[in-house]
Amino acid sequence: MADTKVKAASKASNSAGKAKPTPKNSTSKSNGKAAVSAAERQQPEPVEAVQPGAEKAAGAKASKTAQQPASKGSFPKETYMTWFESMLLMRRFEEKAGQLYGQQKIKGFCHLYIGQEACVAGAVSALRQGDKYITAYRDHAHPLGLGTSPNAIMAELFAKQTGCSKGKGGSMHIFDKSVNFIGGHGIVGGQVPLGAGIAFAEKYNKTGNLCICYMGDGAVRQGALHEAFNMAMLWKLPVIFVVENNGYAMGTSVQRTSNVTELYTIGEAYDMPSEPVDAMHVEEVHNAVARAAERARAGEGPSFLEFKTYRYKGHSMSDPAKYRTKEEVEEYRMRDSIENVRHTILTQGMATEDELNAIDEKLKAVVAESVEFAEQSPYPPAEELYRDVYVQEDYPFIRE
Amino acid sequence: MRTIQFREALREAMSEEMRRDPSVFLMGEEVAEYNGAYKVSQGMLDEFGAERVIDTPIAELGFAGIGVGAATNGLRPIIEFMTFNFSLVAIDQVINAAAKMYSMSGGQYSCPIVFRGPTGNAGMLSSQHSQNFENWYANTPGLKVVVPSTPYDAKGLLKSAIRDPDPVIFMESELMYGDKGEVPEEEYTLPLDKANVVREGKSVTIVSFGKMMKVALAAADELAKEGIEAEVIDLRSVRPIDYATLVESVKKTNRMVVVEEAWPLASISSELAYNVQRYAFDYLDAPVHRITNADVPLPYAPTLIEAALPNVARTVKAVKEVLYRK
Description:
Chain A: One of its GO terms (molecular function) is pyruvate dehydrogenase (acetyl-transferring) activity. Chain A is an alpha/beta fold.
């Protein structure tokens, strides 16, 4: 990924969290394929008001999930506590990673997930062991959510031998086979056919498992996505495609990349069940992924979910994000996905403020420990250079 | 020994490996119901069914990537490109995904996949259908690149490529699919990293691979009439390259001519010349010479093709030059 600064003034197209709370079951009947005027694109619709893809994809269930209040309370305390802990771990980890990047302890490119945590946590709770995960280079949170040791991820960011990719991948190439996390890919959209192929193997082997394939909103303009969508749908591959629409492909707002700005409608071009999801609410993410998983496991093939989310930080650490206003960022912070979970836990009496603070303290300690682990770990020695390039152990490299 | 066509040898290699290992499958344009654009996969759909012999839409980037994803998740795909000219729209998945998976995952995920199909000119197809990218792929660590020249080699090398744990580029030729050659009934495989000294000689070393081997061997026949004994080496694989066999030969003959279908700049022949000057400098009695495609896109007209491609006359002339003979 190039990291040049881009000047732009457009606002984010995705409407995550911008919606005012709407009454239950007030789903819109609007047609998802209807032309969106330029004016509408400047003023995106609130996510709750537009759910045509959901209706198409999930029939009667869609209306129940159109507003987050309808979902609240339908999950047990354990789920909320798991979400809270998992999402807060991602947040604390990324905050620390950003800080360490500023201190030059972490080098290379570093893309933070802060603000988008529900996109992972809600999927992990809806899927099962054996399901495969793949994403692009904003990839620290996915393995954290799956249970990869923060030590191994932090050590990878530090380029240490104890990192999950032995210091060979760095921030953009976190992999952890033990939790079925198949990377961490650096070419925008390149992971989309890979995700379809991973799902192809699951179908070929009749495992009943699926692949969830994440991408950013920049990826939907790549040809690779369209070819993969077409074949995945043609062959009914068990894959859930997810676009984490944070509104900006690096510095270019969604509106500046296409006339088609409701990204989920791209799936409809391939007759793929597609729906927008308010991904500032982890319950919505869970429900949408659960519906897509049911379809995938029933042999009905892929789904395309547009997670409307937001990243609080720049595209990467070198991006001051001058293409958006402070007010816009603040508006999203007001609807923070972790705060939403915390609010539900407290108002429903699942835990006390003190208990949640104790969890936070514990997670800060976990992250601090990961930093210590990474600091103390050795860099890979020069002998590692020729390892892990070929499986063939005696490959005859050209060495002068 | 029985004689079969090049395409039959490839088909036998794929079919035998698919019988042997259920994780092997074939995917590409027209491979199934059409029985292969060049009839390489004829009858395979009937034997293995639509789950393992899979027609794709014309979407090389997409199905190459699906193959890489499937390989990363435990299968052993054979991805057929109708020609390697079309692999350019898929090259991101070959270079950035297949060749990098093992390394960037720190050895957690390998990618045992074969990309195969014809390379090079195939007779008056003009510039977009007449290109050689052996050197492009060979430049990339993480890949192996195999270019067979006979039905026997094609079968033995393809079986090894399918069994190989790393990604392999396997390059054939439309102009060779009908070639006949001896192929034993019994099973055999050939190593992916050993050159083949096809013809022994002491006057000069002629090195080539793929269908240019025909030019090299025909040139050697011509030269023999004049008492020049050429040693002819078929590289078989251009990544890795069996430099040892090459250097050993040059130490004996003191002269080398390379015949290659690709363009000259940064080609396999450049690499061979570098290696020989580096490791056999004191043995060389003449500068290394090479015959390549002319440094232009290959045009349509037969006169221009004749002027562009390596041929026997140019090779014979080059050999005489390194021998300082008229």
